[in-house]
Recover the amino acids of this structure.
């Protein structure tokens, strides 16, 4: 395609009639720069700031001129010649009072989109002295806030009474046209200054129900049976404990200490089946006892280890792994070995060969992978079979099953320490003496006790565990070990990065934080970017909590704030669920539910809800409230639809809801209704509802 | 910006040295042009707002010392803007894709032709963005902002010959990228 370049003598020499260069120049000149997004508030605000600075400079210059002119002989002579008391009077009035520019200008030192510390006052700067009472009576603030005023020269500092500004809030400070200087000159037209506040100091994720960030602690310890030689394991429903007595009996007892019974004598090894029942070796035979107590023989040969691949029992016998009762091995360890550690899913086995080398064997193929590092003690598999833990070098190491990514997650751990890995990613490790807990990423290391806890074994619920102490079988609960087991902060980071990409309009980057289900929730990506006017200006966290025990999820309510011309006019809340992608272990957003769009500036708005404290729920609002409207307009309803008995207290824009009736782990619904009103009588803009799980 | 400063601009600039109101008029006159230019370089609204603020604050501080050399006042603002953008550019990269910045100027051709031309425009501007900074600045000021070579020279503090050379080298590099086998 040829294109003629419009005549531009400037370029004659540059291209020297080179048609190709002229063509590219024509392309460049034929394009037009698209109109950039422009915030009119920014334009007018910058103008005000510039004019204020210009006026101040002009005033200084005029002041200097007056002073320097005074002492110039000619000026002094002129003044003396005039000898007019009136002139002197005018002069001294002018000298004692700063100049009054012809126009009253008010500005602020912040921009509508640049968040300030909520502890900082809002500062209004006038270009000349003002009548304080006139200005103060002309100011209105939205959201409704009781404030005090402090003047510093021509600057007015506005501070909430006895409190900071609300976080995450855009204040509209309007100065009415009647605001005047002492000469009666008014502002002329009302001015609205927008001031945005930053998030509260310890922002996004406030852990909630059974939250992992709380330091775990051992509670509810109770002795169940004695004497005991070895813990076999918990039933899948965590209601029964199986153990071996010193005399070789395979015994069972209820988790509550009742229902003791002997299942079979002379048992040498046993394993609890994932589907219930126990497979054991007794008298040279592999047998199984069903939950109803019936015993059947699986194999007329003795086993060195028993484990499961799904519901199928496998036996390690010699160097071969057989299906229980089967004759053909499914896999073979091809070298002498000293110890073997089968994976919970039964697809792999780690063994230590005679030379002390650690090797991963894939039971579904003859593939073996030798570790680079040596191990000595026991190797504990993660319940998902994706990682293992072992003690080496004086520390607890966690690595992938092939040993390729060992990371020390706890130090000062002795050789021979026993480890139990919960389904919620909390590792118990025995000390000498004592017990510690740590997450597999090395976070949250806590010494739980200095007492003896031998052979710890987690229940499936991952809050209760069994252990041996002085030959007795006991159980206990680790508080805050439950919940999703996923790190709330890490999930918040994912949500935050996702939302940042959306605010930037970068749907490609945002998509990377979604799993397949999440992409579906956002219409394959089409709903990711908020287009048009108003635009998505920012976001913040309203609440966050870990999922129910046994459900590895994290839940966040995120507020999307929509702005038009720099003024925030509406919002909508999105509830997002974060899960861990099994394949890569990444935290991804799995679901999103958007609430209705609400207007801002139409009354008090709930900013955040803290459901982290047992028996307490705290609701933070953006407005100072009429305290008399609080009672009766906040309600808690249980999953059964029955209202909980609550007491409410109000202070500093926060409503604390107290109740003794919350059941740990139970679902509740918080409702803040529109009878709630601010100090100006404006009712809550819309009823606010939040589903949450009671904290423990 | 092909005309010399009009007398009213000249007197406005002189008044702006002492009269805040006159500076306000200059701001009104040039805000959009400067903001548009800055945004095209920063490709991020917040960054563009910050840089534009800096440009006009610097202009306000510097205007008492401004000397009329016969160049348009806008050239002086561009000079401040180019330097401020360069300072900021070192610490932050653009976030809006260059593809979204330019479009063809006029409608009229067929849709197919329009699509081809849009593609050409995007390709060429994408290469401009990768040129060495002096070449890029000279080409942007010439083809996007429509400044005269002499004004670009003033903005960049170079001779007119040097500016022409920068543009020639930049255009030759564009050709070398888009036309296989063409001399670089």
């Amino acid at each position: 395609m040829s294109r003629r370049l419009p005549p531009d003598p400037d370029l004659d020499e540059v291209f020297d009639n080179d048609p190709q260069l002229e063509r590219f120049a024509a392309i460049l000149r034929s394009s037009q720069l698209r109109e950039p997004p422009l915030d009119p508030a920014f334009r007018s605000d910058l103008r005000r700031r510039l004019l204020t600075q210009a006026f101040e400079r002009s005033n200084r210059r005029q002041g200097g001129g007056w002073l320097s002119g005074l002492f110039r002989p000619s000026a002094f002579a002129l003044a003396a010649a005039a000898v007019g008391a009136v002139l002197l009077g005018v002069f001294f009035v002018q000298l004692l009072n700063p100049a009054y520019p012809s126009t009253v200008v008010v500005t602020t030192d912040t921009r509508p989109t640049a968040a300030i510390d909520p502890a900082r006052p809002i500062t209004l700067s006038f270009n000349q002295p003002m009548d304080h009472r006139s200005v103060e009576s002309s100011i209105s603030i939205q959201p409704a806030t009781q404030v005090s005023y402090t003047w510093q020269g021509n600057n007015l500092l506005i501070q909430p009474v006895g409190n900071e500004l609300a976080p995450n809030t855009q204040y509209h400070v309007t100065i009415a046209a009647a605001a005047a200087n002492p000469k009666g000159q008014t502002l002329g037209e009302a001015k609205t200054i927008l001031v945005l506040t930053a998030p509260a100091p310890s922002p996004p994720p406030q852990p909630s129900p059974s939250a992992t960030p709380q330091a775990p602690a051992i509670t509810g310890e109770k002795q169940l049976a004695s004497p005991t030689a070895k813990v076999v394991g918990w039933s899948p429903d965590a209601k029964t404990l199986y153990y071996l007595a010193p005399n070789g009996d395979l015994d069972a007892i209820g988790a509550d200490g009742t229902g003791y019974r002997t299942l079979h004598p002379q048992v040498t090894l046993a394993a609890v089946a994932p589907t219930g029942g126990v497979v054991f070796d007794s008298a040279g035979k592999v047998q199984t006892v069903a939950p109803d107590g019936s015993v059947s023989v699986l194999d007329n040969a003795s086993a060195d280890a028993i484990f499961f691949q799904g519901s199928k029992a496998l036996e390690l016998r010699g160097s071969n792994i057989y299906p229980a009762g089967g004759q053909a091995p499914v896999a073979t360890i091809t070298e002498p070995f000293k110890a073997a550690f089968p994976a919970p899913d039964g697809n792999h086995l780690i063994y230590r060969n005679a030379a002390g080398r650690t090797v991963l064997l894939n039971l579904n193929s003859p593939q073996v992978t030798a570790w680079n590092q040596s191990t000595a003690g026991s190797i504990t598999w993660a319940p998902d079979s994706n990682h293992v833990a072992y003690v080496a070098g004086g520390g607890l190491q966690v690595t992938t099953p092939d040993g390729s990514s060992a990371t020390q997650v706890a130090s000062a751990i002795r050789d021979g320490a026993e480890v139990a890995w919960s389904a919620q990613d909390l590792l118990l490790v025995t000390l000498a003496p004592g017990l510690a807990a740590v997450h597999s990423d090395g976070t949250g290391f806590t010494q739980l006790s200095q007492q003896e806890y031998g052979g710890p074994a987690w229940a499936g619920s991952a809050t209760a565990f069994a252990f041996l102490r002085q030959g007795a079988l006991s159980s206990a609960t680790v508080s805050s070990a439950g919940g999703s087991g996923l790190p709330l902060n890490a999930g918040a980071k994912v949500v935050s990065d996702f939302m940042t990409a959306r605010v930037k309009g970068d749907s490609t980057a945002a998509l990377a934080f979604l799993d397949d289900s999440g992409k579906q929730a956002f219409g394959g990506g089409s709903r990711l970017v908020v287009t048009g006017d108003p635009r998505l200006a920012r976001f913040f966290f309203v609440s966050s909590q870990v999922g129910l025990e046994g459900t590895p999820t994290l839940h966040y309510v995120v507020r999307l704030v929509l702005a038009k011309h720099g003024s925030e006019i509406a919002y909508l809340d999105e509830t997002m669920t974060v899960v861990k992608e099994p394949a890569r272990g990444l935290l991804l957003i799995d679901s999103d539910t958007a609430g209705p769009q609400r207007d801002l500036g139409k009354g008090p708005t709930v900013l955040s809800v803290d459901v982290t404290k047992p028996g307490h729920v705290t609701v933070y609002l953006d407005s100072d409230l009429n305290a008399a409207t609080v009672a009766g307009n906040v309600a808690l309803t249980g999953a059964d639809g029955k209202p909980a008995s609550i007491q409410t207290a109000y202070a500093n824009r926060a409503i604390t809801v107290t109740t003794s009736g919350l059941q740990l782990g139970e679902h509740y619904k918080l409702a803040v209704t529109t009878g709630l009103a601010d100090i100006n009588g404006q009712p809550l803009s819309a009823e606010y509802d939040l589903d949450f799980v009671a904290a423990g | 910006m092909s005309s010399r400063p009009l007398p009213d601009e000249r007197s406005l600039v002189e008044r702006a040295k002492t009269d805040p109101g006159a500076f306000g008029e200059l701001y009104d006159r040039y805000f959009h042009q400067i903001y548009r230019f800055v945004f095209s370089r920063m490709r991020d609204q917040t960054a563009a707002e910050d840089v534009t603020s800096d440009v006009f604050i610097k202009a306000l501080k510097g205007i008492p010392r401004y000397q009329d050399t016969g160049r348009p006042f806008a050239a002086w603002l561009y000079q401040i803007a180019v330097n401020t953008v360069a300072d900021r550019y070192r610490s932050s990269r653009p976030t809006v894709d260059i593809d979204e910045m330019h479009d063809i100027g006029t409608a009229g051709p067929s849709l197919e032709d329009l699509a081809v031309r849009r593609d050409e425009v995007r390709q060429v501007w994408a290469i401009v963005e990768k040129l060495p900074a002096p070449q890029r600045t000279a080409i942007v000021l010439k083809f996007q902002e429509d400044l005269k070579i002499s004004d670009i020279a003033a903005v960049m503090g170079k001779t007119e010959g040097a500016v022409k050379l920068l543009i020639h080298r930049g255009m030759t590099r564009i050709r070398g990228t888009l036309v296989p086998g063409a001399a670089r």
About this structure: The first helix of chain A runs from residue 12 to 15. Residues 1-5, 63-98, 202-213 of chain A have pLDDT under 50 and may be disordered. The two ends of chain A are 73 Å apart (CA to CA).
